[in-house]
Write a structure and sequence with these properties.
The complex is a heterotrimer of chains A (336), B (300) and C (331).
Chain A lengths: L3 E14 L2 E14 L3 E5 L6 H8 L8 E2 L4 E4 L2 E2 L5 H11 E4 L3 H4 L6 H12 L7 H14 L5 H6 L7 H15 L3 E5 L7 H18 L2 E6 L2 H7 L2 E6 L2 E7 H6 L4 H9 L37 H5 L4 E5 L2 E4 L1 H7 L9
Parallel strand pairs in A: 3-9, 3-10, 7-8, 8-9
Antiparallel strand pairs in A: 1-2, 1-4, 1-5, 5-6, 10-11, 11-13, 12-13
Helix pairs in contact in A: 4-5, 4-7, 5-7, 7-8
Chain B lengths: L1 H10 L4 H15 L2 H23 L34 H36 L4 H15 L2 H11 L4 H27 L3 H9 L3 H37 L11 H9 L7 H28 L5
Helix pairs in contact in B: 2-11, 3-4, 3-11, 4-5, 4-7, 4-9, 4-11, 5-7, 6-7, 7-9, 8-9, 9-10, 9-11, 10-11
Chain C lengths: L3 E13 L5 E13 L3 E5 L6 H9 L6 E6 L2 E3 L8 H6 E4 L13 H11 L8 H11 L16 H13 L5 E5 L7 H17 L3 E6 L2 H7 L2 E6 L2 E7 H6 L4 H9 L5 H4 L33 H5 L5 E4 L2 E3 L18
Parallel strand pairs in C: 3-8, 3-9, 6-7, 7-8
Antiparallel strand pairs in C: 1-2, 1-4, 4-5, 9-10, 10-12, 11-12
Classes of the chains: A alpha/beta (336), B mainly alpha (300), C alpha/beta (331).
Chain lengths: 336, 300, 331
């Protein structure tokens, strides 16, 4: 059982709006094994962050409905957890690094105070003296390649640069979390040279400590450099799932292909036309495949039926009718 | 063909996006049940104020009317809220007081809001210049004097009357709007659409009125809705000490103060006007909260 | 021979912080943009690239140096900008959320420049707006939409449309696509390039995305701490980057193909962070992060040298007299 840290099956998440339910996440399956680095790639508004926040149950329950699906964390159902179990999950099990390192840290406390609180309330170091906890905090700071931990412990967040703040956030997540780290576009607000350093560091730390990582990103390039396996998300669906190298060798879903063409290449070669159309309306999403209004290959079948998950090569699933035909199967959405 | 459709669209008062916006506003407003209650209370208040002469059972009791035979009647079938020490129907007088209270708040806000807004816009757009300094320091002086005391001073120097009490409240009310609009305007001035208008070479008047002002409207409206209640309360306070509407015309404060002398025997003389004023203030405050929710960014 | 449209000569923009201390946001920048060019200006946040844009537009009074636009010189003493300048030079801002007034509809937004510059008579404003919307491929019913009801990409198209209203010659694009998704970014970039062709526009394209820059620009300048450290024609630039900072930037880009991977300089790693512009390092401002720094780098600020025709570098380690192949520092 120790293989699977997170297992999401057939999960849907609906927001309540004045027009009715906004079906932001629609029947998704996702899993993360221990020690695995998984990327969740999609454009803004495709439901990546909503899914991840639901794992930690940090969305105000009064504004969402979860009509179906299950989330299992270390074999335990997250949706059925009571308050204590949820606290335990957030303290020790999983943590999330947000994309704005400024709002993740409280501006009126020093870094040291905040780190110490996290260490104390995580319950990971029972009976540790204050001195021991200071040592843990310093070690955490050094581990994210910041020199001079004493000075940083005494600094307030605004005295540090954005990159340093994000490092602190990563340090505080790593010091308490045993299983899963969810990084929600941790470097979008940072410069490319800082981003490179932080990604390198994140990868090394996660590997060294044996944690699992879910990297949420809109950049295929970031996913390519950082993760083992990629989920491509579009309009609340997972449209393609495979190993990183397979994805770049053989992108198969029309959306994935379009997305790859859109990335401006360092090697030149001009610009692609982009993907025609816009993200679907989540209150009245297209009946069949959610990508079909923008898809060049859409057929009548795509408009009326949900596409199945087809395994086009080992561990490479695509949710598209094109492949169902060639593989000689079709019909209902299949799970792995 | 397309042109024709466009022309048609222009003629309709509401473009599709406006209708959509109105739907969103209605949804946000009615999400909180209290704001709906407030809306109903305000509607009733306005109805009372407009049609007071036609709905009260004893319209003649508003003026100089004395009927000692029926003085001090307890609430009952003849006098729903009882009658006062001069035999006048409290119910009729309370309903009539809605008029004065509403009139006062409307007059005060109609004068104070534009004055405060214009000054705030000028100061906010010229953030950090001498215009800002002069306007805002004067505003600060007004804000630093306790509002009620200032109003009392002004009203007592002038002859006590409804007009003068309105004037007094207006004079101490505009600085709040200057402050509010100032903050909003100086932050909006930093937005890129204002910068762009400047770069294009638009006039200052255009920038202040067409670019910045619309962005200040939602806090102004919210504050106005909440302020109606406060102005009514202020008016009631002034009339309580005899500086507002002069007898025999009824006003909440004056009726409460008259009744205070007859407590606890003729308790209805005090209680019903007090309920009346509370009714209005609560209504406008709930409504104001609803309007604030309505303009609240975000939320589904 | 195309003519110069915009030239910056030793342009300086300092902002006071406290007594006798300055942020040297732009510190002696020289560049020339010729008609029909797309010059890319690349740098990290805090490098001063947006400040250059704002100074050219006249949002700040320049501290020193000259800006020459279309033969007319703007000095630190010039107050504001002439009406002609305001008509011919336009800017598109980064944040499409804040650059359109949320309380106006597209028609109001687009009619402002038309009215101010008297581009068309009053009764033709509507037709002109339709024409401009068509130019950026937006449907005519956008006229009555408010910025809040349209997507980020469409908002940016409206911003571009607004810039086009006054028939400009030169547009500054301040990170026009950095807050957009890639599929929308592609569309906007295509639109910009199409307009560049059709309307004979010249762009100063500010971005931090080297991938975008490769595909749109004809010439690239890299900025670091208020100074330009390398200028070169686009092709040379990606094939033979010289300045260590340029190499570092290139090496940091997450790419999606082996082909691109091969273009990234291998011997360099990203280290350190951009220092505070208030206390600039002595000597070459990049030496705190440079892997190849020598003793001279800490002492003397390098000067701009022309290594090849059109390829300028500010680095002690790049010797224009050295034979080809030995120009790269560290190689």
């Amino acid at each position: 059982m120790d293989g699977r840290v997170l297992n999401i099956e057939d999960l849907s998440i609906w927001y309540k709006t004045y027009r009715g339910h906004s079906k932001v996440v629609d029947h998704i399956d996702l899993f993360v094994d221990r020690g695995e680095k998984v990327g969740l790639v999609g454009e803004s508004g495709c439901g990546k962050t909503t899914t991840m926040k639901t794992i930690l149950r940090v969305i105000d329950p009064s504004i969402i409905d979860i009509p179906n699906g299950k989330i299992e964390f270390n074999g335990k159902s997250v949706l059925g957890m009571n308050k204590e179990e949820l606290l335990e999950l957030r303290r020790k099990g999983a943590s999330m690094i947000s994309q704005s390192p400024m709002s993740a840290l409280n501006p009126v406390f020093t870094i040291g105070q905040q780190l110490m609180d996290i260490i104390k309330y995580s319950g990971q170091y029972p009976g540790a003296s204050k001195q021991q906890m200071v040592e843990v905090a310093k070690e955490a700071i050094t581990s994210v390649m910041l020199s001079d931990p004493e000075r940083i412990m005494e600094s307030y967040p605004h005295q540090l640069s954005g990159g340093m703040r994000q490092r602190i956030c990563i340090a505080s997540s790593l010091v308490t979390t045993r299983d899963l780290l969810i990084a929600d576009e941790p470097c979008t607000a940072l410069d490319v040279t800082i981003q490179d350093q932080i990604h390198r560091m994140l990868r090394e730390l996660v590997e060294e400590k044996g944690r699992s990582l879910i990297m949420i990103t809109h950049s295929l390039g970031v996913a390519r450099e950082l993760v083992d396996r990629i989920y491509i998300m579009y309009g609340g669906n997972i449209v393609e799932r495979c190993r990183t190298k397979d994805l770049f060798r053989n992108p198969s879903h029309p959306y994935t292909i379009g997305l790859m063409e859109c990335v401006p290449r360092l090697s030149g070669g001009g610009l692609s036309a982009g993907i025609y159309g816009y993200v679907p309306d989540y209150v009245n999403p297209p009946e069949g495949c959610r990508f079909c209004p923008r898809c060049k290959f859409a057929t009548e079948q795509c408009r009326t039926m949900r596409p199945p998950h087809v395994e086009i090569e080992p561990d490479h699933f695509v949710s598209c009718f094109q492949y169902a035909k060639t593989a000689g199967e079709g019909g209902a959405a299949g799970h792995e | 063909m397309q042109e024709n459709e466009l022309k048609k669209k222009k003629k309709g008062i509401f473009s599709p996006s406006t209708v959509e916006n109105l739907k969103i506003y209605r949804y946000k407003f009615s999400r909180n049940k209290l704001s709906v209650v407030g809306f109903v209370l305000v509607c009733i208040s306005v109805f009372f104020a407009l049609f007071a002469p036609y709905i009260v059972p004893h319209p003649e009791h508003i003026g100089a009317f004395v009927d000692y035979a029926n003085a001090g009647q307890a609430p009952g079938a003849a006098y729903w809220f009882g009658s006062d020490n001069m035999g006048r129907d409290i119910f009729s007088r309370v309903i009539y007081s809605f008029r004065g209270a509403l009139l006062m708040s409307i007059v005060v806000l109609v004068i104070a809001v534009p004055v405060g807004t214009i000054l705030g816009l000028i100061a906010g757009y010229h953030h950090g210049t001498w215009a800002d300094t002069i306007i805002m320091r004067i505003t600060d002086v007004f804000l630093s004097v306790p509002a009620l005391i200032l109003a009392l001073c002004i009203a007592s120097i002038l002859k006590p009357s409804m007009m003068n009490s309105m004037l007094a409240v207006t004079i101490m009310w505009w600085p709040w709007y200057t402050r509010l609009v100032y903050g909003q305007a100086s932050s909006v001035s930093g937005e890129y659409f204002v910068k762009n208008a400047e770069l294009v070479g638009a006039s200052k008047l255009h920038i202040m009125l067409k670019e910045i002002l619309p962005n200040c409207l939602s806090p102004i409206l919210t504050k106005m809705a909440l302020d109606v209640g406060w102005v009514i309360l202020m008016g009631a306070s002034l009339s309580f000490v005899g500086l507002g509407e002069q007898p025999p015309t009824p006003a909440f404060g004056q009726m409460i103060s008259d009744g205070a002398g007859y407590m606890p025997d003729l308790w209805w003389m005090t209680i019903f006007p007090a309920i009346g004023v509370a009714f209005m203030i609560l209504g406008f405050n709930f409504l104001g909260d609803g309007i604030r929710d309505m303009f609240d960014k975000g939320g589904h | 021979m195309s003519k110069d449209i915009l030239t910056a000569k030793d342009l300086k923009q300092y902002f006071p912080v406290g007594k006798d201390r300055f942020v040297r946001a732009v510190d002696g920048v020289n560049f020339t943009i010729q008609e029909g060019e797309v010059m890319g200006l690349v740098g990290e946040s805090g490098s001063g690239k947006s400040t250059i844009a704002y100074t050219v537009m006249g949002m700040y009074q320049q501290t020193g140096g000259e800006i020459i636009f279309n033969g007319k010189t703007i000095t630190p003493k010039t107050k504001g900008r002439s009406k002609e300048f305001r008509r011919e030079v336009q800017i598109v801002f980064q944040d499409p959320g804040s650059s359109l007034n949320p309380y106006q509809d597209v028609k109001q937004i687009l009619s402002l420049p038309l009215k101010v510059h008297n581009i068309v008579p009053k009764n033709e404003i509507e037709d002109k707006i339709l024409e401009i919307l068509e130019m950026v491929e937006l449907p005519p019913d956008f006229m009555y939409k408010s910025p809040g009801s349209i997507g980020g990409g469409e908002r940016q198209l409206v911003s571009i449309a607004r810039a086009l209203c006054s028939n400009p010659k030169f547009i500054i694009l301040d990170e026009p696509t950095s807050s957009l998704d890639v599929s929308i970014q592609a569309k906007i970039l295509n639109m910009l390039m199409k307009l560049h062709e059709e309307q004979k526009l010249t762009y100063l394209f500010i971005t931090h995305d080297m991938g975008v820059m490769r595909n749109v620009s004809t010439k690239i300048a890299i900025m670091y701490l208020g100074k330009i450290c390398e200028i070169a024609p686009t092709k040379t630039f990606y094939e033979a980057p010289l300045h260590p900072y340029t190499q570092m930037l290139l090496s940091a880009i997450p790419v999606i193909s082996e082909e691109e991977e091969a273009l990234k300089p291998k011997r360099i790693r990203c280290e350190g962070e951009i220092p505070s512009p208030v206390n600039l390092p002595k000597g070459c401002s990049f030496h705190t992060r440079c892997m190849f720094k020598k003793e001279i780098c800490m002492r003397e600020d390098p000067v701009m040298k022309e290594v090849e025709p059109g390829h300028f570098v500010r680095c002690h380690l790049c010797d224009p007299d050295a034979p080809a192949g030995e120009k790269k520092p560290g190689l």
